[in-house]
Amino acid sequence: MALADDIALANALADAAGAAIRPFFRARYDIENKADTSPVTEADRAAELAIRKLIEAERPRDGIIGEEFGTTREDTSRVWVVDPIDGTRSFIAGRPIFGTLIALMQDGWPVLGIIDQPISGERWVGAMGTPTLFNGKPVRTRACRDLDQAILATTGPQYFPGHLAEHFSILGGQCRDTIWGGDCYNYALVASGHVDIVVEAGLKLYDIAALVPVVEGAGGRMCDWSGEPLTDASEGNVIAIGDPARLDDVIEALSHCPTC
Fold this sequence. Notes:
single chain; globular; D-Maltodextrin-Binding Protein, domain 2; Fructose-1,6-Bisphosphatase, Chain A, domain 1; alpha+beta; 2 domains
């Protein structure tokens, strides 16, 4: 399958998800709490169903991993990984900083990813061996001379349990500013050169897979807290950095914990 065909399909999947999401935004809809206490809405489910329907029609032999409806043909070499609304709490609050995440993985490696914000009409597309595009135009991460010049972002302190919070605090103390909230939107801002570092803990594959081609296609780097590449076997502690020259500094800061 040609990469261009997969990119075209990924864009169509994002279009379908956006069409399913927009009628619910700042409207009335049902909200439930899943077993892990995270919220899920009618919009989450409608968007994932729209994506799955199109994959089944266009790539019936490919696997699918989705946050809301689980796994189909997971043992295939090509697997689409979907988070229909990454940042459901922001969606519920009417904040347009959530995103639809769509990835294609080949033999466990992310090779194509989309971050789509269907309300503001912002879309980042990354694919192996090609530059990341924002609404059709190439974008680049920015240089960062030192951590004390860096803007660090993460979803929230509650996602760093136990000693991980101390590791993150040490890194934050070395950066110029820390921004809370934003989910996948923060990684898009790294790709576009507005944020320097994102650090998260405990993410799932559907939270991560689409981000890697977007950030790396813009000149950045994504890895785990040890510096290892992200695959379908990664544990979910994640670094995204716009200037790879600062990666060792980030890993070193995260490795320290005075009370551990």
